[in-house]
TrEMBL record:
<dbReference type="Pfam" id="PF02321">
    <property type="entry name" value="OEP"/>
</dbReference>
<dbReference type="InterPro" id="IPR003423">
    <property type="entry name" value="OMP_efflux"/>
</dbReference>
<keyword id="KW-0732">Signal</keyword>
<feature type="region of interest" description="Disordered">
    <location>
        <begin position="458"/>
        <end position="513"/>
    </location>
</feature>
<dbReference type="GO" id="GO:0015562">
    <property type="term" value="F:efflux transmembrane transporter activity"/>
</dbReference>
<feature type="signal peptide">
    <location>
        <begin position="1"/>
        <end position="16"/>
    </location>
</feature>
<dbReference type="InterPro" id="IPR010131">
    <property type="entry name" value="MdtP/NodT-like"/>
</dbReference>
<feature type="compositionally biased region" description="Low complexity">
    <location>
        <begin position="463"/>
        <end position="480"/>
    </location>
</feature>
<comment type="similarity">
    <text>Belongs to the outer membrane factor (OMF) (TC 1.B.17) family.</text>
</comment>
<protein>
    <recommendedName>
        <fullName>RND transporter</fullName>
    </recommendedName>
</protein>
Amino acid sequence: MTRYLMYQRLTGIAIAALFLTGCSTFSKDGGFDSVSSVAAERLHKDAVYVKTDEDRDAVLRRTQELLAAPLGMDDAVQLALLNNRGLQAAYAELDMSEADLVQAGRLPNPGFAFSRTHWSDGFGIGRTLSMSVLGVLTLPAATRIESRRFEETKLETANAMFAVAADARRAYVNAVAAEQAAHYAAQVKDTAQAGAELALRMRQAGNFSKLDYAREQAFYAEAAARLAKARQQALAAREKLTRTVGLWGSATQYMLPERLPDLPKARPRFAGLESFAIRNRLDIQAAQLRTQSVAASLGLSRATRFVNVLDAGYLNNFESDKGHERGYEISVEIPLFDWGGAKVARAEAIYRQSVNRLAQTAIDARSEVRESYAAYLTSYDVAKHYRDEVVPLAKSISDDMLLRYNGMLVSVFELLADSRDQIAAVNGYIDALKDYWLAQTDLEQSLGGRLPPLAMSLPADVPASSTKSATSTTSLSADPASPPAREPQDSAVPAPPSQPTHAHGASSNPEGE
């Protein structure tokens, strides 16, 4: 009867062990579906974790399709999500974290000990089957902790994907702007060269002073140096884009458009950005999960501070003169010298560290939103001012100078000198447009990868005094990750410049001079 009951117990333990072990299995997607869904929702792009040859072939086909036409900003982001090897390496963190989760859900392996002894008139055989009881008891808590860490890893991986997408946008904007600046520098150099050659011929004919000739030659020399520097900057910016999108070989011969996209027609404004960022940023969500995981680990450390080892085993011994001997043994660690205080103190310190890091992450997020939003509005105003005021005025002056030249009222060198004055205006607009798109990328990243939906936008004609300032401070609450008491205002941002009146048929398009 006793043997029958023992067999029943062993059978029950084995079935329970198989059941618990069966619950700890790997998922089909390895957690990547969460990352790809975030990419589709916020970036409207496809994220692919390349594991098989079929995945590589699909990525290659998609890459070739994107490179068949001049590369757009969204195309650059998609290429980075498909080909950036650093991002693919970050995806491997999902596999490692899931492996830790599965491992935490597995029962500890039992131990088996065998011994054989003998003496003068007999021998003995000892057999012990043991298992860590403490490991079985703490299995649910350990699984919950690793589950939170797995979710945290998903958020961190998605956040790394957003960082790569933002880097791709920045690299694209810098590359297109650098090539546009280099193209304009080549035009300036050609103009300077024509002026220098004309000055040389007039100097040889004795119709040009030495000082004026030197001025034309100096301007030509400076234009040639600026062109060389602009071409080098364009090459460096292009290579940065190439590295970010992960291209190599013949794929590096991709085409870029001649200029950056135009400014939006209306001055963009948004409301509730800090609250949106706190709810939307994945690094804050990951920090919250990390704090919860650390809190659970602290509770487990406190529960096991006195007893770290608790093993139970089944004995089946045999001695030649006594026969079989069956029973059980329990092995427990005696907290005689180490009462677990140091372990608990360390866990408490880690918890306090995690809480403070979460609060700092939220504080940094609020500050980054205010800073990037102010830069976003200012860069739009500056670029619009160049587009609608500075460049059209420079072109109007140039058109008037051309009319005077056709009427023989000014010389060709005065006409060339006026073209030099346009250099600063055009280069200023190129830089201002580049700054706007970079500022928009920074704002999107500070908000968690996307701008707020249109429902949160303010009308473009709302007076600045009626909105809230982007640079104003908010009251600090006990929890920085909670929504702010009041939102940033826009009153500190200058209003958009008024629409100019163009003379002599001047165009508002800066590319039309």
